[in-house]
Amino acid sequence: MELSLFRAHAKAGESVLIHGASGGVGIAACQLSRSLGLRVLGTAGTVEGMELVLKNGAHQAFNHREKDYVTKIKEATNNQGINVIIEMLSNINLASDLQMLSYGGRVAIVGCRGPIEIHPRDIMSKESSISGVALFFATQEETAECAVALFAGMEAGWLKPVIGPQYPLEKASQAHEDIITGPAAAGKIVLIM
Length: 193
What we know:
Helices cover 40% and strands 23% of the residues. By secondary structure, it is of the alpha/beta class.
């Protein structure tokens, strides 16, 4: 998540929308974004998820299952748009993300489960950009920089991982299935050895 904020050139005072903010990565992204001085908006799929997002650094939370959540997010920015969007499920959200961006806004794609069709004019008209972020392709230097920032955040107390469901290692396939088909994320899923 630090890598996604870095690649999106996020700056203090800007707004960031974190989709899937109630999951493990989303919670960390909320906490890190808040520590960097960003105005943090997050999405979740349940009331409990929205409460978790708010408790972990978001200024505002929106239910992405509500039909008009995109309109509510636009209104929350006074129709100025979002500067940075951290996207966990781009095959579902990317087209609407482009509608919510500010002029020069950036989307950092962290997750995707399939193809999506978008209109390039939505990117062109706002001179926005989309970048992909995959930690396993990060350089050693980028990985080390992320680790230093995360450990510093835990030492300083602003980064507090939220532990979600726990599974014994032999149930790893069930944990994966639950991530894909479960009702809503709430913290980081942990495998116990």
